[in-house]
Amino acid sequence: MRDAALRLGCSVGLVAAIVELYRLVPVNNTTVALTLVLAILGISTRWGLAEATVASLVAVLGFNYHFLPPVGTLTIHDPQNFVAWVAFMVTAVTANQLSARARRRTAEAEARRLEIERLYALLHGMLFTGNPRKTIREFVNKVVQVFGCGAAAFYYQPGDEVVRSGPESKIVSDHELRAVAETESVAVDAARGVATAAVRLGGRPLGSLALVGPLPSEQTVQAVANLVAITIEKARALEDASHAEAARQSEMLKSALLDSLAHDIKTPLTSIKAAVGSLLEGNSERELLTIIDEEADRLNRLAAEVIAMARIEAGRIHLEKGPVEVAQLVEAALLEHSAGLKRRAVTVRVAEGLPAAEADRELVEHALKQFIENALKYSPEGSAVTISAEWKGGKIVMGVADRGPGIEENERARVFDKFYRGRQHRFSTKGTGMGLAIAKGIVEAHGERIWVETEPGHGAAFYFTLAASGERKH
């Protein structure tokens, strides 16, 4: 109020100063009128319609009283002066109106520009979305942030839930939001400072949006509603696509697992069946019982792999950590594969002074056995195998190297994937493709690192790290 009074006073003062100046410095009436019109135009441009209207009235009275004969009165005797007075008044009022209109349109254009920038910022902020519920929460918070609203609320009809941002949003009840979702219009209640809009996509209702003042224009509210509809639908489509891809991958993994299991179970079962048949016929018992024992062990290992893989997938590996001597780990792994290593040149390199590892003995031993089994499967009969344990970078590094064909560059990144088997050995080598994936799960459950180093044609070396339980021995 005080600012408005100050502007009115300045407007009147400016017109009075011009009249007084030209009263002291004689000029023709046309110059006086033109100067006053320019002053009124400037007032209208700078301050607005009210100030310019008051200034126009003062200018007309001052021009009549001081410059139109008879001077010193508000009457006009000469018809030509009357015409000049009317022309001045019309010009002043018209200039005032045009200036006010231009000012209003400039303000509207600026408001539109600001709203477009805010819509762009809102759109840019919602380019990357998660699932629909997360998207709605982010969108509501983003609308309040970008448009400077006091609060916002969104009713998501498919889930029958309301998401709010700011305590002021309680002014719009859940019941009102549900009712708005059934309409097809935008409503702006200036008295309450609330704007509501139904959110639809292709005629299908998704919910409703409410904004609590200060409010954007009705067109912008509709644009925001359309934008949230598109964003939600995009999030739903991405989520559906993700579920479809996950289902497809799951089916592929199931198929790969069943194929591997069918192949690996069939072989020992065939051997057991043949051995039992021979026993029934009264043939040599010891040899046949040995076959049955070996193949039963093979089936047992296969079942253990499946169980281990299932636990890793479900995140149900429970570690029982304690000090584990590295040399004992290597010895146990060698004993497990003693039969397969008999025809190999085996080199064991365990560095002196290694501290005990802080690990789950059974699981880490299983991981090392998987490395050795992998070397036996994928390297030629009679080739060398090297098992090592050394101290590097504050970690114990366990490794198994073979002299097989190595791993192709394009397959190296997938070698630890479950059920993955190299292109060259997919059908020629027995196995399920779970061994290295199990080793990876065990090592990562310990918070450690696993990797492979290979050169095609010269073999592969697999490594994993273990934390030490104490100081290194010197």
3D structure, described in words:
The protein is α+β, with helices and mostly antiparallel strands and 474 residues long. It folds into 4 domains: 2-120, no CATH class; 130-236, Beta-Lactamase; 242-313, Helix Hairpins; 322-466, Heat Shock Protein 90 (2-Layer Sandwich), CATH 3.30.565. It contains 13 helices and 12 strands. The protein has a 5-stranded antiparallel beta sheet, with helices on both faces. A 5-stranded mixed beta sheet has the order 7-9-10-12-11. Strands 6-8 form a two-stranded antiparallel ribbon. Helix 4 (79-125) runs antiparallel to helix 5 and helix 8 packs across helix 13 (435-445). The chain is elongated.
- The overall number of domains is 4
Quick one: CATH superfamily of the largest domain?
Histidine kinase-like ATPase, C-terminal domain
Contiguous low-pLDDT stretches (5 residues minimum) are none
- What would you call the shape? elongated
What structural class is derived from the secondary structure elements? alpha+beta
Please report the distance between the alpha carbons of the first and last residues.
87 Å
The major β-sheet equals:
5 strands, antiparallel
Can you tell me the CATH architecture of the largest domain?
A: 2-Layer Sandwich
The total beta strand count reads: 12
**What would the CATH topology of the largest domain be?**
Heat Shock Protein 90
**Fraction of residues in helix:** 55-70%
The SSE string, one letter per element, is: HHHHHEEHEEEHHEHHEEHEEHHEE
By CATH reckoning, the class of the largest domain would read: Alpha Beta
